Amino acid sequence: MDPEIGGGIAGSAVTFLLVKLDAFATREWNMQENIRRAVLNLGRELRSIEALLRDAASKKDPDHQFTVWIQNVRDQAYAIEDVIDLFKLDQESIWRRFKRRHSINNLIQDIEESLQSIQRTKERYQTMTFTRIRSASNNTDHHVRVEPAVNGNLDTVGIEEPTEKLASWASEEEKQRLEVMFVVGMAGSGKTTLVRSVYEKVKHDFQSHVWITASKSKTKLDILTLLVEKFGCPITQRADLVGLTRKLRKHLLNKRYVIVLDDLWVKEVWESVKLALPDGRNSRIIITTRRGDIANSCRDGDSIDIHKIQPLSPERAAELFCLKAFSRNGRCPSGLEEVSKSILQKCDGLPLGIIQIGRLLSIKPLTRNQWKIFHDSLESELRSNGELSDIVKVLSASYKDLPYHLRYCFLYMSVFPENNPVKRRRLVRLWIAEGFVIEKSGRTLEEVGEEYLKELIDRNLIKSNELDFDGLPKSVGVHSLMLKMILPLSHEENFCTVCSGAGRNLTENTRRLSIQKEDFDVSQDLPHVRSFFSFGIEKVKIGPNFKLVKVLDIQGTPLEEFPNVITDLLLLRYLSLRNTNIKSIPRSLGDLRHLETLDLKQTLVTKVPKPVLQLEKLRNLLVYRYNYMEGVPPFDIVQGFQAPKKITALKNLQKLSFVKASVQSRLSRQLRMIQGLENLTQLRKLGVVELAKEDGASLCHSIGKMPNLHSLSVTSLSMEVPIELDAMTNNPPALLQRLYLKGPLLKVPSWISSLYDLVRIRLKWSSLSVAENPIAALQNLPYLVELQLLDAYTGPQLEFKSGKFRQLKILDLQQLERLSSIVMEEGTSPCLQKLIISHCSKLGHVPRGIDKLIHLQMLLLYDMPDPFVTRLRRNGGRLRRLVQHIPCIHSFKQRQLEDLS
């Protein structure tokens, strides 16, 4: 394993541990003084080691001794974490305190002795580090890259279209100004190849042109010096930044020039170059970088744009692979098609992987046996001494560039199986439970965690698999080859042990367990396990030896009853039994005082016992299921839970879904629960079902005390019981972004029109009359992106006025049984991309003005009348001309698809 990566992991372990130690020493007021002093001493020792690790991070060619030293640091960091957790466990169990205190003292003494031993080598390693760093500074570049061919043919398969697009941008002469294009993509995605292709095509159209490889090791002075030299300007021996900037600006003044900065890693390098560039004359700067966060931060006007590299399509990936693997004729033999397809799937459209693997296979015998051997050994070939190790070296540079606080977050992706997308919110909640998210003043942990994830996505280490309507990822993952890089690293560093086959390799020091594709029964003692995951397995048995577990995620396991052993896991912070068949949870769950997330979504649980109110640290209480049915969704599709009447004791709750407003008891008790919600002032998401008409005012009063509410869902008691939310007029939740109202409305509550941040609203079964047309109430919301009306309006016509719904991208109209006409005035909904029309039996034709919606990408029709669909068919449809600009038109009739595109 690369010692630089190992040092980074050890450094992350120490950094997070120091935060934990500080909090521990501050909050544990009942700690014995001798233990407190020992903990403070451990912190001092660790700070010294942390500083040394940061200095050593840049050390090149470390020897074996240094690698062993890093491992010792990591092991002691883990040991200290164990002591802290044992102390907490000790505090949870009074009868065991005196028995444990002696062992905790002994453990601390052992760790102190080990740290002193580590510290005794400190000066020697500091000297060695200083010497190595000084000698390393003489090297020009330690950054591993696989360069495209410069002389000869470039591997241009799949980049023809973006090459033409960027070449056209570079050659455009309409705007007399300097323009900048950042070309962004993950390592090995073909950024340099694409830009080289563009550069060779357009460079002779400019008076001056130059290509500079920025790389991570080059400073601002280095880059400016290279630019001045390559433009042929003389340089004095003592040139500084100011002098070089003036010289470059003077040389380029009144010239049309193109400059490529390839492989940018540091924002300040670009900013120093930018200061030296004169504007005007249609000059162009093209910058390649895997750091999308830098590109985004530099985008300060319309003269700077970003082109994001996309993975190759399966067809183009196969074409490139065949060109490399079968260089004689570029065709795959029929006997190798299946194994070739499987290898290509692992490349996941990444040109670097396709080219390197294809080249290696081109020298192997074309036999099915040889290719299967290679396929099965691909992971080992990617390791440090394997034939494909250059791929990992290129990918790992992005990991090494991460700040310490993000390294654990990224490494956490090793927990999840390949091709198994992770829900964004689930991942952030897990990071928080693990202690990876560090508090920031004025921000919730969830908000900080979202920032972490955004940065990892922008850095092209984590990818968005599925985007939500607002552009945020619903789920995320890592590239297949990136996963193969971090899996052995995660195992070797004892970060996570993945069990995905017959071999288990479990040791008593295992800290995280991810069980994949096998039944699991732990019989051996695993006292250090902190996190336990199961994926797609039929049976999981958790023994009594997981006392220090903080994360237990066994969603999807076919459990029928709540495992009683869980209530003994007193340090548990995250518990997910989602998608299981458990019907109830025990009262003893209230003993888990550290629990932050309780996820019982899609279970059969309908009631939460009163002792749950003791979970004062609880942030997420998710107890509901969807009753999925074919066809039209039922009114009671969401089944919530009966909450204890004093649920207001859970003052740290961020998410509460879905709580029943009506219970089978006295009305006064029900009202107290609704009124008591006002104490949950930290709520970001609230879901309420079975709301009686008379409880609306109380709910409004409570919601008015939730200044941070971002998402609100309210369902009435039945389809006949109206929702009364007009009482919130004076104090609506100003930050509300998502609003879901299910049930009859006499009118659209007036306060909704004032929700400046609202991006999505769904009105279902509202049955609004012509006089209370919802369009008029919603059309001026400045950031509304999605509007859904399901049986929400009883009038014959919907009219969308010009200049309204400025940001609307999704319009979903369902079960509007009396609707016969939709009018879209020219200039309305200029951003509309997706239009859904479903079960509108009296609607005879597409909206009038649909041909003016030039950005409409998708028209989806569900069980619409035959004449409606006939008018849109190709070859004779009377209204076909109105929709011919829409790329995707699908009509579904009793779930049968007809493609009208």
Structure description:
α2 (33-56) packs parallel to α4 and α3 (64-92) packs antiparallel against α4. The two termini are 52 Å apart. It contains 26 helices and 32 strands. Helices cover 35% and strands 16% of the residues. It has 901 residues and is α/β, with parallel strands linked by helices. It is globular and about 85 Å long. α22 (667-676) links the parallel β20 and β21. The longest helix is centred in the first third of the chain and has 29 residues, at 64-92. The strands form 6 sheets. The protein has an 18-stranded mixed sheet, with helices on one face. The model is unreliable at 94-99, 130-142 and 664-669 (pLDDT under 50).
Basic shape: globular
**Low-confidence runs (pLDDT<50, min 5 residues)?**
94-99, 130-142, 664-669
Helix and strand content put the structural class at: alpha/beta
- How much of the residues is beta strand, in percent? 15-25%
Taking all Cα atoms into account, the compactness measure Rg is: 31 Å
* Annotation field: number of helices: 26
The helix content is 25-40%
Q: What is the residue-averaged pLDDT? A: 85
Say how many strands there are.
32
Measured distance between first and last alpha carbons? 52 Å
Main β-sheet description:
18 strands, mixed
What is this structure, in a nutshell?
The protein is α/β, with parallel strands linked by helices. The chain is 35% helix and 16% strand.
Question: In terms of topology, how is this protein built?
Answer:
Layout: H1 3-27, H2 33-56, H3 64-92, H4 97-120, H5 122-136, H6 160-171, E1 179-184, H7 191-202, E2 208-213, H8 220-230, H9 241-252, E3 257-262, H10 267-275, E4 284-289, H11 292-298, E5 304-308, H12 314-325, H13 337-347, H14 351-361, H15 368-376, H16 378-381, H17 389-400, H18 404-411, E6 422-423, H19 424-434, H20 445-458, E7 463-467, E8 473-477, H21 480-492, E9 497-499, E10 512-516, E11 520-521, E12 531-535, E13 540-541, E14 551-553, E15 574-576, E16 597-599, E17 620-622, E18 625-626, E19 638-639, E20 655-660, H22 667-676, E21 685-691, H23 696-703, E22 711-716, E23 738-742, E24 760-764, H24 774-778, E25 786-790, E26 797-800, E27 810-814, E28 821-824, E29 834-838, E30 858-862, H25 866-870, H26 880-883, E31 888-893, E32 896-899
Helix pairs in contact: 1-2, 1-3, 1-18, 2-3, 2-4, 2-5, 3-4, 6-7, 8-9, 12-14, 13-15, 19-20, 22-23
